[in-house]
Design brief:
This protein is an alpha+beta fold. It has one domain: Glutaredoxin (3-Layer(aba) Sandwich), CATH 3.40.30. It has 3 helices and 4 strands. A 4-stranded mixed sheet has the order 2-1-3-4, with helices on one face. The protein is globular. It starts with 6 loop residues before the first strand and ends with a helix. About 20% of the residues are buried.
């Protein structure tokens, strides 16, 4: 049986306390459930700023938006086990 390694993408920017909190939860979960994490800073990308603006952090799991503003750890773990 092959275990699927999920791709998690965090859209945020520096000096964003909610982004820092979300990253902490993602890193905590990664200790027990490995996944590929991509962090994207929207600060210098006009398209991403227009799309997400102040609605950050936004977390995608395998290309599907899973969370905005806050990450629910239990729900995140459940998503990674599908």
């Amino acid at each position: 049986m092959t275990i699927k390694r999920h791709k998690v993408t965090l859209y945020g920017k520096k000096e964003c306390c909610l982004c820092d909190e979300a990253l902490e939860i993602l890193q905590k979960v990664a200790l027990s459930v490995p996944f590929d994490l991509e962090k994207i800073d929207i600060s210098d990308n006009q398209d991403l700023l227009a799309e997400f603006g102040l609605k950050i952090p936004v977390i995608f799991v395998d290309g599907v938006q899973a969370f905005k503003y806050r990450v629910n750890e239990a729900r995140f773990r459940a998503l990674l086990h599908t």
